[in-house]
Every structure is written in C-alpha cells, then in structure tokens.
C-alpha cells in the first residue's frame, strides 16, 4: 500500500531498520541479534540480491586490510616513518577476526574458507628512494607483535624466487625490494555477507530485495522509512525505532532527507575504477601474494597499484589495478545525476575547497580516464614485465564516494580517505560515509556505533560483548600475551593455520 492510501500510516513496525544488504548492515544486524535477540529487524535493498555493490568480491580487492603491506598507511613525515595509522587499522582488523571467529563457533557463519583464505601480503619498492623507505618501514614494524613474521630483502635472486612472475623480464640493473609476511588474508566480502544474511533470515529477519528507501522521516521517538518496490512501483512505510543507513554512496542523501544535522556541509566525490583480471592458470600458479606498491602522486589511496591473488568461489585468479576513473554515479548501479543532485548551498564551499586543493587528484583522474587497454597493460608491466594483454581482461570495479568533510569558515572542506560514522545526538539513526578500509574493519566500526547509539545498554551487554570480542576495551598493541592467545584461536577457527609459504 502507498503512503497516500495509508494517510502516512506505517504498515509494519520494527525495532531496527537496516538500509542496504552489504557487509556493513549484515555485520550490525548480526551483532544486534546476539545482543538483543528479541528485537525485530528488517533489511531493505534496492537491488535484487545481497552484496551486489561495494561488498561484491569483484568490486573490491578483497585485502584483509590489516596494514601489513599497504604503504599508504605508513607515510613518511619529517624524514620518519609514521606507523600510527597502520597500528590503528591492524587493531581494527583484529576485532574483525575475533568477531568472525565467534560467529563461526556459534554456527552463524559456515565454512570460513568460503570467505577468508591465507595469502601472503607483500610491499613492493622500485628505485633507490622507495627501497630506502621500505627498509626503514620494515625496521619500524619488524619487532611489533601485531606484524608477526615480517621479512625484507633487496636481493634480486631472492626477489625472483619469491615473485617469479614479477621478476621475469625485469631489467637486471633495476633496484627493487620487498617486505612480506605469510599471515595476510584474502577476504570475499560478498560470501561473508551472504552467510550473515542467510543466518539473519533463518533467525526471522525480513529482507526486502528490490525495495529502495526513498526517504526517512521523523516519527516521534522513531522514524518512518518510506520504500518503493523498484519492479512494481508499490510504496510502503515501515516504522522503526532505530535506522542504520548502510547504503554506500546513497547514505549521504538519505541522512540528509532524515534531517540529520551532523551531515550538513558534507559532500561526496565519486571515484570509479577498473581492474585487469587473469584466469590463465599458468600465471595464477606463479603468483601467490597480494603485492602493494606506491601510489602515483595525486592518486587517492584506493588507487594504490597492487597485483593480487584472489580466491572467489574456490577459484584463484589474479587482479591488477585499480585504474582510477570518474563517473558522477554514487553507486555502480546508480544514476548519472547522483553527483549533481547531491549539491546543496551548504556543501558548495566543500566542493570548491577540494577543487582548489586537490589539483593532483584531478590530474590523476583525467590521465586515468584517457587510458585505453594497451595503456593499462603497459602500467601492468611495471609489476609483470612480460605481461601479454591476451592473458588479461578488463573488469569494472566498484564505485566509491570519498567524503568531503566541511571545515569552519574561512577554511574550505577537505577530502577524507577513510570510513566516517555519522549519527544524530539521540542515537536513533546512524550511517556510514567513505570507503577503504571499510569492509575489513566493519566489526570495529559497528562497535563504535553501539557505543554512540546504544550507550544505555552497554553495561548490560558487557558479558556478551567480551564473548564476541575478547579484546574489547583493550589495545592488543600494548598486550602481546593477549594478542598471542587470541591470534592462536582465530587462526585455528578461521582455518588459516596452514598459510602458504611465500
């Protein structure tokens, strides 16, 4: 029934409404089902299945982002390597491992090999400057227990032995180095999401696919969620006490429609991308690692080049990229009008600020958009010197919306590279903006959401929270013994013990 026919009356009432059937909503729903099993939940998804946008395995790199190899998390500042961000992200990924372990032990998640597999994580440096940086980074991390088994080499023979695909055909006088650890992972966030949602539906959660949330309005102490069936045009209203907006690039617009003042002045900058993919078995067998290099000047962090082993539906393949692109869409299956419809008087200064300050990014995106297939293969040859275009195909990656954060006058806004949690003061609506590391740290972000929005419940939930996240409230970076105990459990439960030697 439509809102007009119902005179604004809701046809359903739930405790928790989750917008978007991706890994974020799936994670929050799983947590709340354990903490408050009596609370009713409903999920709305505009597409006809789960994990079809950013959570899809072909729309992201599948790196279990723990800062083991991602060089943009260890910037050089004043001649020193700053590892603080790497430490923070690693801590957050440990929360994810613990939560997934708990869910496997409780039968919520089934076979962990469907969504997580051991793959070595490797950092790659080219040229004297990068090699020097990588060695200093390694020296900063090698004795840190959050980064176990870190190794380094600038020996060309060792490099060729470990990375034959990257060594063959490389100039003998080129300076290269790698640091690595065998404890990295490849994560299929699509499979993880589907397992969560299968368990959610079995527990009574109603999932409405093909239903787009058009607006959200206040209703006393709660919310009215207006939805439209994308196939029939039928509209409905659902009353919800709490709303989570996990709608990817559309989250900003929905939070605005809900009147959440905390998003005033925020803007979004869409960035798309492409991968090169190879399923050539000979190539796939020669390379077993996620190899991250240095980003081009002006490139956003999500465009750091990397050559990745992927494990999707039990099949291995190689991905290289991503190649940056631009589209005004805020979702891969969005509208070309998304960017233009998002402009408001309040966020125009934010857009102007980024336009003025991010010339390097603009130049980078223009260069990337102009590349053809041959240009992309040529870029691949920096990693795979003997790459043959016939072995590779182009795959469209997911669409990301980088957050443009407002700043107080007279300053303009700034482009933020990360995941931003927004909630209103009452704590009855929240949403996520931004991109990487995103999915990898979903459980940590959802813990923050619980603390912000359900503070009055936290004491009562304490025992359950410690059961789900044994390190809750502690920094594993400061507690080596606890880290080792938890690491051993998660390695065994997630079936990561027999990591392949790199």
From TrEMBL:
Protein family per UniProt: Belongs to the MQO family.
Protein name, as recorded: Probable malate:quinone oxidoreductase
Annotated keywords: FAD, Flavoprotein, Oxidoreductase, Tricarboxylic acid cycle
Catalytic activity: (S)-malate + a quinone = a quinol + oxaloacetate
GO molecular function terms attached to this record: (S)-2-hydroxyglutarate dehydrogenase activity; L-malate dehydrogenase (quinone) activity
Enzyme category, top tier: oxidoreductase
Origin: domain of life: Bacteria
Organism annotation: Corynebacterium stationis
Pathway: Carbohydrate metabolism; tricarboxylic acid cycle; oxaloacetate from (S)-malate (quinone route): step 1/1
EC number per UniProt: 1.1.5.4
SUPFAM superfamilies in alphabetical order: FAD/NAD(P)-binding domain
Cofactor(s) this protein cannot do without: FAD
One GO BP annotation of this record: tricarboxylic acid cycle
């Amino acid at each position: 029934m439509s809102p007009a026919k119902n005179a604004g009356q809701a046809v359903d009432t739930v405790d928790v409404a989750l917008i978007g059937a991706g890994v974020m909503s799936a994670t929050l729903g799983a947590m709340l089902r354990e903490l408050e099993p009596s609370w009713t939940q409903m999920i709305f998804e505009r597409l006809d299945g789960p994990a079809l946008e950013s959570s899809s395995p072909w729309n992201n790199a599948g790196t279990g982002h723990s800062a083991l190899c991602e060089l943009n998390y260890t910037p050089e500042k004043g001649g020193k390597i700053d590892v603080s961000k790497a430490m923070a992200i690693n801590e957050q990924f440990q929360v994810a491992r613990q939560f997934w372990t708990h869910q496997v032990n409780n039968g919520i998640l089934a076979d962990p090999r469907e969504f997580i597999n051991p793959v070595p994580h490797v950092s790659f440096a080219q040229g004297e400057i990068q090699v020097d940086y990588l060695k200093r980074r390694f020296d900063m991390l090698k004795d840190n227990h959050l980064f176990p088994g870190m190794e380094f080499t600038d020996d060309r023979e060792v490099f060729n032995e470990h990375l034959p695909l990257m060594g063959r055909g490389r100039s003998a006088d080129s300076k290269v180095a790698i640091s690595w650890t065998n404890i990295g992972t490849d994560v299929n966030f699509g499979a993880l999401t589907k397992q969560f949602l299968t368990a959610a539906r079995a527990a009574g959660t109603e999932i409405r696919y093909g239903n787009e949330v058009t607006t959200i309005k206040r209703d006393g102490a709660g919310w009215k969620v207006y939805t439209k069936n994308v196939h029939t045009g039928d509209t409905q209203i659902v009353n919800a006490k709490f709303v989570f907006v996990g709608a990817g690039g559309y989250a900003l617009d929905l939070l605005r429609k809900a009147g959440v003042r905390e998003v005033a002045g925020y803007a979004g900058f869409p960035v798309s991308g492409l991968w090169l993919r190879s399923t050539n078995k000979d190539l796939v067998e020669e390379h077993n690692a996620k190899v991250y290099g240095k980003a081009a000047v002006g490139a956003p962090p999500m465009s750091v080049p990397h050559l990745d082993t992927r494990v999707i539906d039990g099949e291995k393949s190689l991905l290289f990229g991503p190649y940056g692109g631009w589209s005004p869409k805020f979702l891969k299956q969005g509208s070309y009008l998304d960017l233009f419809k998002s402009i408001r008087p309040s966020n125009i200064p934010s857009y102007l600020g980024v336009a003025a300050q991010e010339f390097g990014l603009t130049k980078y995106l223009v260069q990337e958009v102009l590349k053809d297939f041959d240009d992309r293969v040529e870029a691949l040859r920096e990693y795979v010197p003997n790459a043959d275009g016939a072995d590779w195909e182009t795959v469209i990656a997911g669409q990301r919306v980088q957050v443009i954060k407002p700043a107080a006058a007279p300053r303009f806004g700034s482009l933020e590279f990360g995941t931003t949690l927004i909630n209103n003061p009452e704590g009855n609506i929240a949403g996520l903006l931004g991109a990487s590391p995103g999915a990898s740290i979903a459980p940590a972000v959802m813990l923050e959401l619980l603390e912000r929005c359900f503070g009055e419940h936290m004491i009562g939930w304490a025992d359950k929270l410690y059961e789900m996240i044994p390190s809750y409230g502690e920094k594993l970076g400061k507690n080596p013994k606890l880290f080792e105990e938890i690491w051993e459990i998660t390695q065994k439960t997630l079936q990561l013990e027999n990591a392949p030697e790199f």
